[in-house]
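Action item from last week, closing it out:
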Amino acid sequence: MSPAATSAAWTQDLEPDAACAFLFPGTGSAAAPDLHALAGSGPAAVRIVHDVLDAVQEGLPPGRPPMRSILLEHPDRYRPAARAPGVAQLAAYSASVAVDRVLRAAGIAPAHAVGQSFGEIAALVCAGAFSIADGARMAVSLVDVLARRGAGGGMGLLETGEDGARACIGLAAEPSVVVACLNAPSVTVLSGPDAPLDHVLDAARRSGVRAVRLAVPYLSHHPSMAGADDEWYERIRHYPQRGLEVRVHSPVRGRAYTDGDDLHRALADCIVKPVRLPETLRAVARDGATVFTEAGAGNALCACARLTIPGAQTLTPLRERTHHAQTGKSAPGVAPVPPHQDHTPHTVPAPQPGTAPGPPPSPNLTGAP
C-alpha cells in the first residue's frame, strides 16, 4: 500500500460507528519511529508532522538535537543522537503526538485514550490538558530525575503473570525487587536494584520462565523512588492544566481522569506506583471502545490489547525503523512482535478452550519510561 493511500485506508477500513481508543506507549519503549512514512500518509500529514516536531523543539533546552532533523530530514543521525539521555524518550513522545494529529486529520478521532507508564504525558497532551511544548518539557525533566534518583537499578521482563513473577521474586529471596508493570495477563515487568534484579531473572530462567533484562538504566514504578515523585511534581506543577477533551484512562490510578484531578500529581505518581494495563484495557472496552489504536511506533500496546481481550480489533498506523539500534526497552536478541505491514484493523479470533490467547508476548511489551 502506497503512503499516499494510507490515510484513506485508515478511514475506509473502520466501521462508521467505530469508537477508537488511542494507546500511548511509554516514552522510549519503541525503536526509531518512521515519521517520514507518516508524513507521506496524506495531503496534510507533512505539515502536521513538521508542526508537531517544531512544537516539541520549542519545549527543549538549548543544545538538544533538532528533532525534525534526526526523525524526519536526516533519520540516519538518530542512532548516534539517541545515545544522549532523553533523546529516545523525546522521539517516542514526538511520534505519539504526531500519530494522534495525523489520524485526526484523516477523520479518526479518539473516544478514549490510555497512556502506558509515561505515555500518560502524550495521552494528556493529546487530550488537550497540556501543550505539546510543555509535554516535551515534562519529558526532559523526567529523564533527568529518573537518571539521578533511580541510578543503580533497572527493569526486567518475565513472560508470566503477576503471581508467577512474585513466585520468582520469592525463589530468589530478593524482596527489594517489585512488580512494576503488568502489561498483559502473561507479561510482567519487574523493577529493582541491579544485583537483586539479576538474581530474580536468573531464578526465573532456572524455573523455566522466559526472562530478559530491559534497556532501562534506572528504577521506576518502585517504592524506593518516593521523593523523586515529589521532586518531579515540583518541577512540572507550574505548567498550565486545561480541560480534558478526551476521556483519558490511567493504568496507574485505575480509572479515567476528570478535570478535578491534579494531573501533574497523577503523572508524578507514575514514578512510584505500578502500572496495571489489562484492567484498564478491559475497562475501556466495557466503556464502549471497539478499536484499539497504537498512538506511537510499532504495535506493542495493540499486542497487549489482543493478549488481554480475545478478538480485539487493532489499528497500527506507524511502523518502527527497525534497522536502527533498539533505543528503549526492547531486549536485544529477542525478536519483537512484528508490526503489521498494512494499516487495516487487525482482529484476532477469540481462542478456543485450551489454546493460547494470541501471539507469544515479546520484550517490546514493556511498561517503563
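Closing note: Residues 87-105 form the longest helix (19 residues).
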